[in-house]
Amino acid sequence: MAIARQVISSLLRDGTDMLGTKSLAVKIADESIVSGSLLTVESNHFCVLKSRGAVLNVYETGQYALTTPDKPLLGSIAQGFFGGSSPWQFEVIYVNRAKLLSSNQGVATSEEMAEMAYQVDYYIHVDTKEDALQLITHLPFNGHVIDTKEVADYAGPAIEQSINQVVQVTKMEDINEHINEVRELVKSHLTDFLKTYGITLNDLKVLILPKDERMRELISLQAIGLSPMEAVRYYLALRMAEKGLVSAPNAATGQPFNVGGPATGFYPVGAETGLPEQKVG
User: Fold this and answer.
1) 108: which residues sit within 8 A by CB, 6+ positions away?
2) CA torsion sign, 231 to 227 to 178 to 193?
3) Cα–Cα distance between 230 and 233 in angstroms, integer?
4) Is the CA virtual torsion 167, 173, 174, 180 positive or negative?
5) Which ranges constitute the DSSP H helices of 144-212?
6) pLDDT tens digits for 190-239?
7) Cα-flanking dihedrals φ and ψ of residue 77, to 5°?
């Protein structure tokens, strides 16, 4: 908070913005803020002025002298608790009107009850003075800040419900074919949900992958044209090759690896893979 000569600003002493790229709103409650103080609102902010619980005004860009209007915009001014005065006369709430990035992660289950991990990244902003008022009315402060993580916590159930609506009735290998359907459903539900809080949804990205890393690799192998059994064999061969095992090509082709006898030291890979036979040792 920067207060000098009764000037209230969202800029800190080093010139940085106290809201930054993660905070949707910041509340300043200080005894130094009195009638006649100058309130500065930056071009990427709104400012909501409250006094004793009542919303007095909502400001756009500019500098304003704080005065108590005859009638508040929202609520009523109660003076009984402090004998006509309170620990602070004014609360100044800066609302970020810039686009902010928020993100949600979770797990959904496919038709086969396989766990699918999802990540939804989306941009949000507060568009108008009315939206700024709606935000501070419906979304509670966690201390003195409302940040994008709090918005994501509120939006999480709506996103999860939208994704499960499609994923739970879709086979795991077919989910990516329905990704646009999932995206549009999430966008529709999330837009309606955030509108309640005065938040506008700009755009979003949805990514859904098998939660198990091995399953992701097996599906990738099937995507290049391998059958499920061939994908399992090639997955096994890749893991064996990482361990330096010379029998990895045999695992890929489904051929036995012979030790001793006439074929001692050789494994037959030429006919199956096009590679020359190699001698072990």
Assistant:
1) 115, 116, 118, 160, 163, 164, 167, 168, 208
2) negative
3) 5
4) positive
5) 148-167, 179-195
6) 999 999 999 999 999 999 988 877 777 777 777 778 888 887 787 788 88
7) -90, 115
> 155 in helix, strand or coil?
helix
Nearest to 44 by CA among 95, 1, 92, 8: 95
What would the mean pLDDT of 2-9 be, rounded to a whole number?
64
The torsion region of residue 98 among left (phi > 0), alpha (psi -120 to 50) and beta comes to: beta
Do residues 126 and 200 touch, judged by C-beta distance below 8 A? yes
pTM of the model: 0.73
Q: Mind listing the domains of the chain with CATH numbers?
A: 2-96 (no CATH), 100-211 (3.30.479.30), 214-255 (no CATH)
Burial class (CB in 10 A: 0-12, 13-18, 19+), 161: middle
- Give the Cα separation of 93 and 28 in Å (integer): 6
Which residues does 10 contact at the CB level (< 8 Å), separation at least 6?
A: 2, 17, 18, 19, 26, 40, 41, 42, 45, 94
Cα 222 to the chain's mean position, in Å?
A: 30
